[in-house]
């Protein structure tokens, strides 16, 4: 401010000033040089406008743009930024990282039986329990509903990921007390690894989601890696009335059992104008 006054220039800036409380106050400070009738500078006029309320609104808007309103966890937009940083570091230092796609097992039952308020309280407790398991540098976001995405940077071995997954499942399997009732939620987790399963972060999220499905059909309260679904090449998952959905049935067996109908499709070769049969 003094330098601007000496230069006979106006000064304007937004500054935070601590008043001894936890919340500093913000001011819009505008200083204009003052001159007498002969044009000589005789001082300055300062105007201070308290803009604390406006700053709090701006901070809240910025926070909610990158965080989940209910749990306060980062949202997908914030995770995307954090994941880019983790990806760049992993590529630069030849590190590994893991993506965990977590879904609660019996959350819908809580919503249906006790209402959305109870469901919100359960989600808050779930978020706290997940945080308590993760390290400071791990990334966590609420994907939406009862789904969460976790990124573990600096992974040295798949056993490190298994350790975290088991801790999460154990923690979330413990009873949760909400108002006048106690519920057991539980969780299932799908896992993908960089660089083993893919080199693209968005693809790793998709693969972890697919692995989550595998964990779900096995039974609640477990985890599955992407490798375990890649082994299903040339096989198909078919829900049957007389067989459990977890059973893997080969395509030839499905045809033999009349679960699938094999059909031939005719095609035209534009050059030879001959009828082809695609087997």
Shape: elongated
Tell me the strand percentage band: 25-35%
Average the pLDDT over all residues and give the rounded result.
Answer: 81
Overall helicity: 25-40%
List strands and helices in order, with pairings:
Blueprint (H helix, E strand, L loop, with lengths): L1 H5 L4 E7 L7 E11 L5 E10 L1 H15 L9 H18 L2 E9 L2 H8 L1 H18 L5 E6 L2 E9 L2 H16 L2 E3 L2 E3 L3 E8 L6 H18 L4 E3 L1 H4 L4 E3 L10 E3 H6 L8 E4 L6 E4 L1
Parallel strand pairs: 9-10
Antiparallel strand pairs: 1-2, 2-3, 4-6, 4-9, 5-6, 7-8, 11-12, 13-14
Helix pairs in contact: 4-5, 5-6
Walk me through what this model shows.
- This protein has 279 residues and is an alpha+beta fold.
- Helix content is 39%, strand content 30%.
- The protein has three domains: 2-58, Beta-Lactamase (2-Layer Sandwich), CATH 3.30.450.20; 69-231, Reverse transcriptase/Diguanylate cyclase domain (Alpha-Beta Plaits, 2-Layer Sandwich), CATH 3.30.70.270; 234-279, no CATH class.
Q: Keywords, please?
A:
single chain, 279 residues, alpha+beta, Beta-Lactamase, Alpha-Beta Plaits, 3 domains, 5-stranded mixed β-sheet, 3-stranded antiparallel β-sheet, 30% strand, disordered C terminus
Quickly describe the structure.
The chain is an alpha+beta fold. It contains 9 helices and 14 strands. It has helices spanning 2-6, 52-66, 76-93, 107-114, 116-133, 158-173, 201-218, 227-230, 251-256, and strands spanning 11-17, 25-35, 41-50, 96-104, 139-144, 147-155, 176-178, 181-183, 187-194, 223-225, 235-237, 248-250, 265-268, 275-278.
